[in-house]
């Protein structure tokens, strides 16, 4: 649910991030020539920019305890689940229910920054929401424990990896980069149509770090280095850069020249780990993987409906009439997930976790193929039925013709 909490006055405090919620009704009154109405209206309805002048910290408002206090029984169950957070079959959806949607606060030991992160995810997004962020953080935790990597990681590496995982999709609007570009959104212009969302997630994260003063005790040059490394990690999640990272990883593995004693190589493998965590849904148990697949496709279809409503070209994978969930997932697994996780398994040395993930991936892909086959069979059956009816109609018409 909505992560907003009531202040002492009983009035809902404003939501951070894309405040207020993005309102695509504005497109009704716009044209693609850039005539978007008054600047005030654009800022009010479509702006993603953070409103630092309204910062609660600057106004002296301290974090309030949530009214949605957990029942002791549920809290105990949540704690029990958290003790198993390193297990790959961890059920993030159950954990989300047990914590009443406050997953991110349980995963981090510093309270105020995670509160800000959680509030900046949009609960109305079917997929890119705080539950996805918590899921990616849990997966990242598992990957950081892989022996091949864990033995070289510094505390700073671990902190960077988990922070990047938690905030990698913060303030995601529920639409993709092509949508922002085709609607001439100001973020697309700001980042020159390159890694638009990822740049925004990174800059939003920096804003929260500075506002929360999480790193205020560190020297300025150290803070700047952390911010840059967070940016490098978050920008690596841009799916358009998939081949770039795969080619580089393949080269390292083939040449056996990864030196994890070097900070640069460790950082590269943190990027790969975060990329794996971000798209690991097909490698989960079927019951969990299927839920994620349905959620991400629902988000695609919502964008397609918007594009159709405003007479925009429907983006790939967003046409509910043509792009079925099984076909989308099979393509995603084949061209994106499998190549990355096969290389990850090669890096880790076929550990139990890597083998488990690849086994889930293959089984899930087989299930989607089976469902796709059933859809095609059903479609052919319906088409054949329609042809027979048409033929019968033609025969009847001929018999009635003098």
From TrEMBL:
GO BP, one example?
Answer: signal transduction
Q: InterPro entries annotated for this entry? A: HD/PDEase_dom, PDEase, PDEase_catalytic_dom, PDEase_catalytic_dom_sf, PDEase_CS
Q: Which keywords does UniProt give here? A: cAMP, Hydrolase, Metal-binding
This entry's Gene Ontology molecular function terms read: 3',5'-cyclic-AMP phosphodiesterase activity; metal ion binding
Q: What class of enzyme is it?
A: hydrolase
Q: Where is the composition biased (Polar residues)?
A: 378-395
Pfam families from the UniProt entry? PDEase_I
Segments carrying the region annotation (Disordered) are 373-402
Superkingdom classification of source: Eukaryota
Where Zn(2+) 1 binds, per the record, is at 132, 168-169, 278
List of catalytic residues: 128
Q: Give the enzyme's EC designation.
A: 3.1.4.53
Report the catalytic activity.
3',5'-cyclic AMP + H2O = AMP + H(+)
Coiled-coil residues are none
**Positions that bind Zn(2+) 2:** 169
The residues that the entry says bind AMP are 128-132, 169, 278, 329
Q: Which stretches make up the PDEase domain?
A: 34-375
What pathway is this protein a component of?
Purine metabolism; 3',5'-cyclic AMP degradation; AMP from 3',5'-cyclic AMP: step 1/1
The cofactors required by this protein are:
a divalent metal cation
Stated family? Belongs to the cyclic nucleotide phosphodiesterase family. PDE7 subfamily.
Supply the name of the protein: 3',5'-cyclic-AMP phosphodiesterase
- Organism, as annotated: Rostratula benghalensis (greater painted-snipe)
């Amino acid at each position: 649910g909505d992560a907003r909490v009531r202040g002492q006055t009983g009035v809902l405090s404003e939501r951070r991030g894309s405040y207020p919620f993005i309102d695509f009704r504005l497109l009704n009154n716009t044209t693609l020539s850039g005539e978007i109405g008054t600047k005030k209206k654009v800022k009010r309805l479509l702006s993603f920019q953070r409103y630092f002048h309204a910062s609660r910290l600057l106004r002296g408002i301290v974090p309030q305890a949530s009214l949605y206090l957990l029942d002791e029984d549920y809290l105990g169950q949540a704690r029990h689940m958290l003790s198993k957070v390193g297990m790959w079959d961890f059920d993030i959806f159950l954990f989300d229910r047990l914590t009443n949607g406050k997953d991110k606060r349980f995963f981090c030991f510093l309270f105020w920054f995670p509160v800000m992160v959680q509030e900046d995810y949009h609960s109305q997004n079917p997929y890119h929401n705080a539950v996805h962020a918590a899921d990616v953080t849990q997966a990242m935790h598992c990957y950081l424990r892989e022996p091949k990597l864990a033995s070289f990681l510094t505390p700073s590496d671990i902190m960077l990896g988990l922070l990047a995982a938690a905030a990698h999709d913060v303030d995601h609007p529920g639409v993709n980069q092509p949508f922002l570009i085709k609607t001439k959104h100001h973020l697309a212009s700001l980042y020159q149509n390159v890694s638009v969302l990822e740049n925004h997630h990174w800059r939003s994260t920096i804003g929260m770090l500075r506002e929360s003063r999480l790193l205020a005790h560190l020297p300025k040059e150290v803070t700047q280095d952390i911010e840059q490394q967070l940016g490098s990690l978050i920008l690596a999640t841009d799916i358009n850069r998939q081949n770039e990272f795969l080619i580089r990883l393949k080269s390292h593995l083939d040449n056996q020249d990864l030196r994890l004693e070097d900070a640069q190589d460790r950082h590269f493998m943190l990027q790969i780990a975060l990329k794996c965590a971000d798209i690991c849904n097909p490698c989960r148990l079927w019951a969990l993987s299927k839920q994620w697949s349905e959620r991400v496709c629902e988000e695609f279809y919502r964008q397609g409906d918007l594009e159709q409503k405003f007479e925009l070209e429907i983006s790939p994978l967003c046409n509910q009439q043509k792009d079925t969930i099984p076909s989308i997932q099979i393509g995603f697994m084949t061209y994106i997930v499998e190549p990355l996780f096969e290389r990850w398994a090669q890096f880790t040395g076929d550990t139990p976790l890597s083998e488990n993930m690849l086994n889930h991936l293959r089984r899930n892909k087989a299930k989607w193929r089976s469902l796709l086959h059933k859809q095609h069979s059903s479609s052919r059956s319906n088409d054949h039925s329609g042809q027979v009816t048409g033929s019968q109609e033609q025969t009847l018409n001929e018999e009635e013709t003098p």
